[in-house]
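look at this one:
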Amino acid sequence: MTIGLVIINKGHRMTNLVEKIVVPIVIGIMASGATIYVSESNRQEKENVETTLRYLLTHKEEWKLRSYSAIKQYFGDAYSDEELKRHLISAGALRFPDNENPDKYWWGLTSKNLDRLK
């Protein structure tokens, strides 16, 4: 009987060891992998949006500036105004005031509008 109790006790200790050490380690590794995947996915999405914005702001040589509404129409409701404006800035765009309408702004790449910078 003593031998049976020792084996049961060792099995119980092993179960506690697995529950207290191995399971949290495995969960931590899985969570880290999920975090890395989400982070990489977000980075790729940001890069794609900024590439698209750069294209919209450069594809016609004669257009140095685009209205925000012209840019927004291509993205629909995918991004809030704040998010899209952050992406524009990350893509290298700046906002320029409309001389005729002070409530309106135009967006353009810094590299194409150096003459507008003061």
Remarks:
- The domain at 2-116 is CATH 1.10.10 (Arc Repressor Mutant, subunit A).
